[in-house]
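Please predict the structure of the following assembly.
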Amino acid sequence: MIFGLPLERAWHFRDLIRVILGRELASRFRGSALGWIWAVVSPLIMMAAYTVLFSGVVTLSRSSAHQSLGTRSLLIFSGITVFNFFAELLYRAPGLLHEHASFIKKSIFPSETLAWIAVLRAFVYAAISFGVLVVFKLILTWQLPWTIILVPFLVVPLIMFVLGAVWFLTALGTFTRDVVHLMATIVPLFMFITPVFYSFTDVPVDVRPWWRLNIVGDYIDLFRDAVLYGTVNAASLTLYGICFAVSYVVFRLGYAFFMQYKAVMVDVI
Amino acid sequence: MSSEVVIRCRNVGKAFQLYARREDQLRQALFGFWRRYYKQHWVLHDISFEVRRGERFGIVGRNGTGKTTLLQILCGITKPTHGSVEVKGRVAPILALGAGFDLELSGRENVLIGGAILGLSSKQTSQRMQSIRDFADIGEYFDQPIKLYSSGMGARLAFAICAHVDADILIIDEALSVGDQAFQAKCEAFIADFAKHGTLLIVSHALGYLEQICDRVLWIDGGHVQESGEPHEVLADYVEEMTGVPPADGKPHKVRRKG
């Protein structure tokens, strides 16, 4: 099997993953009056705020001058949808084992499944956000590009990439709490060098190759092509191929790193 | 007894990593392949023993002597630094101070998770839910978050789960001591029944109970096997060492193997 051992292990523990994921999703909004509506409302509020900010108050992108308000808010919302998926996990991964310390120290718990649970949970919120985006796009433009059916092909390498990153950060974060603070510092900075509020074409031509090194930005770019613009061409397919390969490597290396230190982590947590 | 060996522990040693500074842990994780940033603190040395199917095997020793670490190794929670462990069959551990519970979740939800950890499908766990609830016998607390439980209730739930997972090997670490008489009686009845087909490994300071239930007892001191064998003899020597007084039945003092 191409994805090998990590996937086999996850499949073996699918019931465990499903049970804990189900409980985490149910308990996240337990005790809140609006419950699940928050999952829809909070990205909407963020989008509204950023749209107002970057259209009226600050002019960030060069192309924004001749963009309609609707186009710009779709651009921002699609960027936030993908970026939040990463950001939430980057914040959470370093403390993931501490969150579940009692499972890990006191039962025969396959700790590598925690990354799956965290990623799937964040993915559920991203999917809700995506649903809102599609509805929003339909309301504004009355059309969807056919390329939207390609989104699942983006999701596969995207999830592999985050899983690998979560495994790596979880292992590091278990050894030192500094990683939590590091992430709290890096992620907001990272947001500005990622085309979240602007599009890739707003980046000056001479620094674009450097921007391409940011795989999160590449995924946002591909995501916008598929969902908003319907532009799939040779260039985007090449980019997709590269992203897939890099993500696969991150996935396997992250898993290997985690498993290497899995036994030691129980002793230091 | 000629039945199959289900637990084989060979020269097991365990060292914890002690770090002088907090940041050394990170250095170890990143550069551990090339250099060592920690001191080793040995808690178990060269532990070897075998347990056969159907045996009731007790472990005694003073506090901080490595009993819990040994059980964690047998369960696969942590790995030995050297030596090897082979365990055949499904292990259900009931470790001290409650099993791995998520304190925010209810007892029912923790049963689903606990069942899944121990290898039941969620369908199997759901089918056994009522029986587990009856066994734990904690009333309405079953649907309350674990953080509201007393330690006795936690132990009841942990035991109830492990009693329902069709384990081949039951590992019990001091879990019974926090239960009240009624629950202890229930557990003892279950254990007696379980021992007819399963293998039992039990750590306890209730020496009378160990002597009554076990076929064999292992005494660990300072991370070494001090003595192993017939419960009556081993426990008598252990009591003598602990209290400095030979037991009342005046068994002659035995020369023991040290470290």
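DSSP finds eight helices and nine strands in chain B. The radius of gyration of chain B is 20 Å.
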